[in-house]
Specification:
alpha+beta; 6-stranded antiparallel β-sheet
Amino acid sequence: MRPVSPAIALLAGLSACSGAASEPYEYEIVELPGGGADIDNPRAPYDALRDLAQERAAEEAGDAEAAYRDWTYFGADADSLLAYAITPSKGVFYYLPPGPYPREGNVMLALPEVVPVCRFVVEWAEVPGAPLIGSMEDIDLVSKDCVPFEASDYPLDPVDKDSALTLIEAEPVEGKRVSVAVSASRNSRFDDVRALSLAVEAGGAQLAQTVPLNANGNTLLAGISDQGDVSLLIESRRLKRGQRCIVAGLEWSDLGDKSMRIAAERGCEAAIKARS
């Protein structure tokens, strides 16, 4: 695997109020600075808290420059905002208050000066199935209160490892190889790892590791070859259920390039239409 840039030391001053740890996961309640209210822009303190959490997550994940960063609303009622950063070695997630407007009532919620939040860390190498992890659904995430979910509450359909997969080449994007993986089956869980492996093999390498990037919603899966190249598998809304868009020949720092991703998805859509 191509090594990431030198890791930045963990931020000092994490204040653990309570904690629990079990491989491959670590989770604890920590305190972050809040900032109170902003009458003119009620979202501003929440946005600042999200940005702070993402910055801390990127540094704690080991590579603040190249780490993949994202955020999403999380929970059955979107009762938290999950800000996170991911590197090939680990993912660091912060469960934050979702915003100033409650689901019920008309009172704006101001952040306190100190905000207790759940911090969740996963070491990818320790996850069952590693180094080839299929999706974030294979990760035992916790609630906003740092309480582990029961796996039996979220049963998953088995991955279809037997249906035929084919690759359709698309137009390159910014010099990167683009293809569409198409499954012969549309009624079962897509084998994203096998699709990534096919795309990597088409480039003359072997798939060595996969890392899920999307904590909520459609699959976004990074693959690292035995030669160090990075590929990205995208469950695109532009494609049908049994299809995935794959971009190969990337660096880890390219994964957050949304314009490149959109261009690749459009290319994948055009390739499928051309075959119809």
